[in-house]
Every structure is written in C-alpha cells, then in structure tokens.
Design goal:
- By secondary structure, the protein is mainly alpha-helical.
- It contains 7 helices and no strands.
- Helix 1 runs antiparallel to helix 2.
C-alpha cells in the first residue's frame, strides 16, 4: 500500500514537472512572438505553432485537474500573443474555443492584451500617427467594457486586478492621445506676427 502511494506521488510530481516545463517554454515562445509582432517580423508559422501548443497544453491540463496552476502562465501568455496577432491583422478576436483554452484563462489573456495595445498606440504616436493611436484607444475602451462585463469570485478567476490595470492603461493612453492631438493642433495653427 505504501509503495502504491509513493508511486502515485512520484507520478504526479513527474507530470507536474512536465506540465511546468511545457508552460515555461510556451510562455517564452509567446513573449518572443509578441516582441516580433510589435517589430513586424513574426512569421505566421510561429503563431500557428503557438496556437497548437497552447491547445495541446490546455488539453493536457484538463487531464490533470489537480495541476491547473502550473500551466496558467504559459496558456495566458499564448492567449495574449494570439489575440495581439488578431489586433494587428485587423481581424475579429478569436474566442476561447478557437484559441483552445478555458474561458477563465482567456479572460486573463484578454486583460493582459490591454498593455500590448497601449504599446501599439504609443508606437503610433511616436510616428506622428495620431489617428492610428486613436483607433487603438477606441479598441482599448471596448476591451475594458468587455472585461468589466464579467464579475466572478477570485476563487474562480482573479480578473479584478486585470480590470483595474486595463482601466488605468486606457486612461493613460487617453491622456497621451489627447496631448498628441493638442500638440498637433498647436503645431498646425497659423503663427501670429509680432505686434498683432
């Protein structure tokens, strides 16, 4: 009997280690992909592979219901990368089923997407593309409204910190876009002659 218990614990530990390793690798690949997406250099196969591994890891996690926490970071980061690629492509965001993750994981990835969209808005402002930044701001407004629609206990999904962070991101981005519009207006205003 004791041997069986030891074997059970050893098997569970090995499974946990394998899932944690897969999650770490997926997280790193997703971070690299998002950096490349911002630079405009991510090849589509990289994102396709991330989608496949994300779905496969989510299935593996469902088969090990006692170990959901070890895969959360990887799945969340992969979801964020997949959603960012849709934003950049100008396509509709895929839902949890299309991404291959549980709704709770999807919402966490969606919450993190706000920071990536802010980066896109800031990059547009740095290029003097205020209208593009404004489009990203409108997307952020919709994203926050979507996130605020959900109210679940932290024991189910810790969404409140993501909602609060996304609201702060929207307001900072709104301030940046508003300032850029004002500066553009001032720069384009006709100059008065001295003494007039």
């Amino acid at each position: 009997m004791l041997h069986d218990i030891e074997e059970h614990l050893r098997t569970r530990e090995e499974r946990r280690d394998q899932l944690a390793d897969r999650s770490r690798r997926l997280r790193r690949r997703s971070q690299v992909a998002m950096t490349a997406l911002h630079a405009g250099t991510t090849p589509p196969p990289a994102l396709a592979e991330i989608r496949q591994e994300c779905a496969a890891l989510a299935i593996a996690a469902r088969r090990a219901p006692s170990e959901p926490g070890v895969v959360l970071d990887g799945l969340q980061e992969a979801t964020e990368a997949i959603l960012l690629s849709a934003v950049l492509a100008g396509t509709e965001l895929p839902g949890p089923t299309e991404v291959g993750v549980e709704p709770e994981v999807y919402l966490l990835g969606l919450g993190d997407l706000a920071g990536e969209v802010r980066r896109l808005a800031l990059r547009s402002l740095a290029r003097g593309e205020v209208d593009a930044a404004d489009r990203y701001l409108r997307f952020l407004d919709e994203l926050v409204l979507t996130l605020l629609r959900f109210d679940a206990p932290r024991s189910i999904v810790s969404l409140k910190p993501k909602q609060d962070a996304a609201r702060g991101i929207v307001e900072r981005t709104r301030g940046d876009v508003t300032l850029a519009r004002m500066l553009a207006r001032v720069a384009g205003a006709p100059r008065r002659k001295a003494g007039s």
